[in-house]
Structure formats: C-alpha cells, structure tokens
Amino acid sequence: MPVASLHEFDDDTPVHFVEAETSPPDTYTVRLADYPLASADVERVAEQRFRREIERQLGGDVVPALRAFQNASESSESDLSKAEIAMAKRWAKAYDAARTAGFRDLGDTDEAFFDVRPV
Fold first, then answer.
1. Cα distances (Å, whole numbers) of residue 114 to 1, 35, 71, 77, 97
2. How far does CA 109 lie from the centroid of its chain?
3. Which residue, 16, 19, 40, 117, has most beta carbons within 10 Å?
4. How much is the pTM?
5. Residue 35: partners with Cβ closer than 8 Å, 6 or more residues away
6. In this predicted structure, what is the pLDDT of residue 1?
C-alpha cells in the first residue's frame, strides 16, 4: 500500500469545505406560567411532561402547528388554507392533551397555563 509523502501536501492551495445546506430544527420553549404553588423542580417536571406529550402528539410539527394556530387566531377562516386550519386544529387538540399531562400530579388552577414560544 503506497504512503503519501509530506511533500505532496506542502502546497499553499486553500482547502474549501462545502457546508451542507440544512435548516436547524424548529425549537421552542415551554414555561409553566401563573401556577402559584410551584417550586423550580415541580415546574421543570411539569414542563417536561407537557413537552413530551406535545411532541408525541405533533412530532416535528410543534412549531409549525403553533404558528398555524396563532395565524388562525389572528385571521378569519377565509384567509387561511385548509392545511393551515387543519394544523391549527391539531395544535389545539395536542395542547389540550399536553396541558392535561403537564398538570398531572399538580392539580389545576384556572389561571395557570403552559406558555409555548418558538425560539
């Protein structure tokens, strides 16, 4: 098996690396808001349960579904495509399931909610 000598690599020709065109995954934050009795550990566990359930419901569509729901909330139904309406409905159903999972073991208050925001 031939071995290359160091002299073969001594030229000053720059090496150009090509970066793969990939978009970063949609990320988001989840925060338990307005729950008066929660310690930091309780909040973290509730937020993890919420996140796990919403991802189970929506898979990689969490941020697109959230955005569709926000658009639907700010627009009339005639301004939205059928796909956007369907995605907004998926968000509402998934959020309800995730909220239930997040509040498991905490009890429920009328004021508390999970704030989900794209990063």
1. 62, 10, 19, 25, 12
2. 25
3. 117
4. 0.75
5. 43, 46, 106, 109, 111, 112
6. 52
